Structure formats: structure tokens, C-alpha cells
Amino acid sequence: MSRRFHDQPLARFFLERARLRMPAYERHLREGDLEAMWAYVQWLRSPDASPDSAAVTSF
To answer: How do the domains of the chain map onto residue ranges?
Structure first.
């Protein structure tokens, strides 16, 4: 748990009681994976990723 969440009582309450915990992936990432994932997240947040976009729905 990050210090930011640990210092917040409400966040800590929920995170300590979570049934599933996110595993640490830093040992499993290859060079460039983090940058590729960040680019994907930015694309998802962009107008280009809207469901009615022809580029998104074409196969």
C-alpha cells in the first residue's frame, strides 16, 4: 500500500479489507511496456476512442 493511501484512514479501511490485492508487476515488465500501457490509457481517455468512431469499430 502506498504511503498516500496508508495515511488516509478511509482508503486504508477499504484497502486492508480487500479480498483481492493487485500484484506487483515491476519484475514482469519488459523495456517499453510501461510506456505502451500509458499510451493506451491516454488513448482511452481521448476523443479518438469514442465507441462511435469508425476507426474503433472497424475490423
So the answer is: 21-48
> What is the 3-state secondary structure of 20-48?
CCCCCCCCCCCCCHHHHHHHHHHHHHCHH
Q: For residue 40, is pLDDT > 60?
A: yes
Q: Which helix (H) or strand (E) holds 16?
A: helix 9-16
Residue 59 half-sphere exposure, CB side, CA atoms within 13 Å?
0
Regarding pTM above 0.85, the answer is: no
Long-range contacts of 14-18 (CB under 8 A, 24+ apart): none
